[in-house]
């Protein structure tokens, strides 16, 4: 499904095995995936293998979305794109499936929003910003505690031992609005890959995704996410402050050795939900780093 905002085309994929006749027996729950990439890169194809496999085994219909990317837009624009896709699922998807000759029925009383990293943050936000609300949230190492020093005070990412220069990334600010840059799948990642291989190295050509490390060094993550918005508009970013006792049941997955998003973010989400008596589970991956679950060897 495609839609346009201005001249920007935004797509989502609907993934289901149309040849599986068993899917016609009962209406299918919807698994709504929001991709990672630091809000700067990647696209709707980047579903971790275990999520896709798990959804298929449970006979869920998968919807995976694109959204406009930083730095040309801000987090409010991105949430708007996510909300538009969510609204489409609830108001138009069933009719469009019928028009395409697909007999599958949807059970929109059973919806899950899930995402990794930046997508995990958006999934957490979706728990209170989407209407109707999802029935469950899955957050995989998503940043959440945006009041903390992590997102407002400059520091060095582990493995990045030099300071990035803003002028080296100006060309990316001049690019037109985009909705995705393909990443690499778990099957394509070398067996000896380490997450620090994704950290900018001195002498490397500047890459769009490196802008996140630049903003971390500058302590400007929140400033760049909120952009031109008012303080009131920016409140939607603050996950912990928006959670209430009506928040959906939530599963959280995070590695304790994450160098991009502190494990403490997930722990405080877990504590906040516990205090609100919202059913939740925190799955701690001891010793694991960011994107650990994209590796096939970590999912066996």
Report on the architecture of this protein.
- The chain has 300 residues and is of the alpha/beta class.
- It has helices at 49-57, 75-91, 93-99, 118-129, 170-173, 211-218, 221-226, 231-234, 239-242, 263-275, 296-299; strands at residues 2-5, 8-15, 28-34, 61-65, 106-116, 136-140, 250-255, 280-285.
- It has an 8-stranded mixed β-sheet with strand order 1-2-4-3-5-6-7-8, sandwiched between helices.
- It is globular and about 60 Å long.
- The two termini are 33 Å apart.
- The model is unreliable at 184-193 and 296-300 (pLDDT under 50).
Topology of this protein?
Elements: E1 2-5, E2 8-15, E3 28-34, H1 49-57, E4 61-65, H2 75-91, H3 93-99, E5 106-116, H4 118-129, E6 136-140, H5 170-173, H6 211-218, H7 221-226, H8 231-234, H9 239-242, E7 250-255, H10 263-275, E8 280-285, H11 296-299
Shape: globular
Element-by-element helix/strand order: EEEHEHHEHEHHHHHEHEH
> What's the story with the biggest beta sheet?
8 strands, mixed
The number of distinct helices, counting runs of at least 4 residues, comes to: 11
Rg, nearest Å? 19 Å
Instruction: Identify low-pLDDT runs.
Output: 184-193, 296-300
The beta-strand count equals: 8
Helix content range: 25-40%
Strand order of the largest sheet: 1-2-4-3-5-6-7-8
Q: Can you describe this structure in just a few lines?
A:
By secondary structure, the chain is α/β, with parallel strands linked by helices. Helices cover 29% and strands 17% of the residues.
